[in-house]
Write a structure and sequence with these properties.
Belongs to the short-chain dehydrogenases/reductases (SDR) family. The chain is α/β, with parallel strands linked by helices. The chain contains 9 helices and 9 strands. The model has no long low-confidence stretch (mean pLDDT 89).
Amino acid sequence: MKALITGASSGIGRDMARVLAKAKVDLILVARRKERLMELKEELPVHVTVVVLDVSKRENCEALYQRFVHEPIDILINNAGFGDYGEFHETDIDKDLQMVQTNIQAVHILTKLFLKDFIRRDKGYILNVASSAAFLPGPLMATYYATKSYVLRLSMAIWKELQKKGSHVSISVLCPGPVRTEFDKVANVKFLMDGKTSEEVAAITIRRMLEKKLLIIPGMLMKASYIATRFLPNRLLMSCSYHIQHRKNK
């Protein structure tokens, strides 16, 4: 098997590459930081192709697909993404738009392009990395929360389309809570609880992806939180979300 992972230079993406390598899956690792990718390549016991690329640009996503269109890609993992903290009217619009391009546009393009091939072959796994943020409105991180909601809903809709046509192609969406990665530094926030390690989340995620689970929520606390969001009124959810985000920046 062969897997393509975006955002593979750190965090969950890097650790999912390690989990897949232990299962003898060859890898195509995509990220902007070449040195990090080369370090990871050296430690993995499988064939690894390193691609230094910024997936926030549409032409780069299309070029990435064209480069590997004739290779038997079995797994696509859209993991690249980042967040930012601040009131919507104060955050930098260029960073907002780059976030939309990375968290939404890249996922949309790569999922669409590779899905067509997977459907034609009637096999393959797609894993889109969202967040528990996808379940809530996100005051003080409005753009990030909105992007992850898009990823969740897109993935769920595709899952239903595949089910209706009796396809053997699988799509999963990962919605973790706090994970100990570089995310909090990039987003300029501090998580209120330690959360799981990226190694733990990666192991759970790959196992459940291969089991063809649609919604992957690591941890009982986060599963309970997800259930709660389905029954609470939006005004209360917005208040809770604001309180949580406000405390993150203290």
